[in-house]
Amino acid sequence: MIGITHDDIGRAVSGKAFDAGLLYHVSGRVLDCTVSPGGDAVTGRVRGNAHRPYRQDIRIGHGRDGRAQVDGDCSCPVGYNCKHVAAVLHAAIDQQRRLPVLRDAPALSPLLAAWLVELEGAEADDGEAYPAAIRQRLFYVLRLGQAASGRRQLIVEPTSVALRKDDSFSARVTKLVPGAISQAAAPKYLRNADHPILAGLRDLAPGGVAGMGEPFPDTLHRMIATGRARWGGVEGPAVTLGAPRPGRIAWRMGENGEQRAELELEDGLLGLALAEPWYVDPAAGVMGPVALDLPRRLARLLLAAPAVAPDAAPLVRAEMARRLPA
Which UniProt keywords are given for this protein, alphabetically ordered (predicted)? Predict the structure, then answer.
């Protein structure tokens, strides 16, 4: 049995070679594919552009991390880990799965060929996992900001980053504008879960500031569920959903004497005034709802209260006592 997956092929060859190799395979251009009994060697012949088929001699090992490593020689001008090597490996995997392969088939139209490439692996793909050929990832970077009033804000930055061959992040990082992405021309690296998330992020304030809009906590849940939410940057900790934590609303006095309503939480947690109060543990990348002993609407109004100047504090306190009897 061959110990390799389509993802392993994607790490061993370029994205272009991966796609071309898959096309060669589904078009029936792999003439021979023989896997050694131990699954650590594959030989093959592929019909290329030359008069004679190209020959492949492929060795498969495994690194310390357990990932398969491919060393594929080919008689073509490229010579190493080329599209012909990729084609033979694709064929070896499908041969193991006993999938039918077209033999001596006529050349496919570009439209059909592209469709077959998309079809490959679709049965096992739930639309969330990244195919090996897609080397771009979308992350939801969450960080803290501060409004002009001094109030703490949550900033959401959908960020695209390219992967290197070793799956580390490249320096090519792009911040996306959710409102500029159309469903019809969406990037291929978007997964099914990303479309409703990006739609929800279109309602954020300029700069990706999350306010007290009703739908946002649902969008936040969706971002965390993808496993691609990161705190502080794409290299930051993965954001996970924590259990509800207790808290209360307290009035805090600033240096200028003004008072503001803020969330008071356990040590290490910071409060976020969203449609529902949330907390964040920046060091651990954990976020979750805050459990308050107050009606939801009242809590939201208190946290949205404007600053109270020192001379207005007695009157505001008296009015709150009158309007909100204990």
Answer: Metal-binding, Zinc, Zinc-finger
User: Which residues have a Cβ under 8 Å from the Cβ of 235 and sit 6 or more positions away?
Assistant: 169
Instruction: Please check whether residue 125 is in contact with residue 131, taking contact to mean a CB–CB distance below 8 angstroms.
Output: yes
Number of H helices, E strands in the chain: 8, 16
326 burial via Cβ count (<10 Å: 0-12, 13-18, 19+): exposed
3-state secondary structure of 315: helix
Residue spans of beta strands (DSSP E) within 129-183: 136-146, 152-163, 169-175
Task: Assess contact for 44 and 33: CB atoms under 8 A.
Answer: yes
Q: What are phi and psi of 143, to 5 degrees?
A: -155, 170
Those residues whose C-beta lies under 8 Å from the C-beta of residue 207, and which sit 6 or more positions away, are: 145, 155
Torsion-angle region of residue 166: left (phi > 0), alpha (psi -120 to 50) or beta?
alpha
Tokens of 104: 């001596």
DSSP helix/strand/coil, 224: helix
Structural tokens at position 89: 């490996």
Give pLDDT tens digits for 267-288. 999 999 888 899 999 999 999 9
Predicted TM-score (pTM) of the model is: 0.60
